């Protein structure tokens, strides 16, 4: 019987599975630095390309995180059936924000079609809070009002799943926004755009809502 050659991909899979087993067993713990590539090559008896592919797969799955210049570290182990909220808790803020922005344009478009008067009142209320806090240089209040403004637009879009997803992503960004915004100047600069977005949603102008949502993301 002929033996099937072991490919580099299957070697990488095997190494990834063994590292995963080490994490499950507690041999590797959260925050621990993974051994270096030469050490892993020696430990598993495979080449550098297989080690790198295994690390890449585990990093993509969230079990490892690669920090440039520092090494590769173990993330907290989670079971395969983790919830979205659990996954977001260990995600990088910039990745969460990227997904939030992808949702935002579609949300604005749908809100212009599906909003109710009660939802418009809520959106306008958060808009006014955002504007007031921005001019009063209250950065934390301004960020919270901004998040509430966009979440209320998501609720007005008329799709509960889309709204829940957007709210889940947005709720985890406040601390990151506080790190990247030292004052409210950028919020003041976009107050008019946010007001225009609200007016386009109020007027049911789908095309304008789409345009202003994109303009806001460019800022």
TrEMBL record:
PROSITE patterns: HTH_GNTR. Residues 9-77 form the HTH gntR-type domain. Keywords: DNA-binding, Transcription, Transcription regulation. GO terms for molecular function: DNA binding; DNA-binding transcription factor activity. It holds the Pfam family GntR. PANTHER family: REGULATORY PROTEIN GNTR HTH, TRANSCRIPTIONAL REGULATOR, GNTR FAMILY. This is DNA-binding FadR family transcriptional regulator. It comes from Dyadobacter jiangsuensis. The lineage of its organism: Bacteria, Pseudomonadati, Bacteroidota, Cytophagia, Cytophagales.
């Amino acid at each position: 019987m002929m033996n099937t050659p072991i490919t580099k991909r299957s070697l990488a899979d095997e190494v990834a599975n063994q590292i995963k087993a080490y994490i499950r067993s507690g041999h590797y713990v959260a925050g621990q630095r993974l051994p270096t590539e030469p050490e892993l090559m020696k430990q598993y008896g495979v080449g550098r390309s297989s080690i790198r592919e295994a690390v890449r797969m585990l990093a993509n799955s969230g079990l490892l995180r690669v920090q440039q210049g520092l090494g590769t570290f173990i993330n907290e182990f989670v079971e395969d059936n983790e919830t979205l909220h659990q996954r977001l808790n260990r995600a990088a803020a910039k990745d969460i924000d990227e997904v939030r922005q992808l949702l935002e344009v579609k949300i604005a478009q749908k809100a212009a079609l599906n909003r109710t008067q009660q939802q418009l009142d809520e959106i306008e209320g958060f808009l006014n809070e955002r504007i007031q806090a921005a001019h009063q240089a209250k950065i934390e209040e301004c960020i919270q009002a901004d998040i509430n403004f966009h979440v209320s637009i998501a609720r007005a879009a008329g799709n509960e799943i889309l709204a829940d997803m957007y709210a889940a992503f947005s709720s985890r960004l406040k601390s990151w926004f506080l790190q990247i915004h030292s004052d409210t100047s950028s919020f003041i600069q976009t107050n008019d755009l946010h007001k225009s977005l609200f007016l386009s949603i109020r007027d049911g102008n789908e095309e304008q809502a789409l345009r202003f949502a994109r303009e806001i993301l460019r800022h």
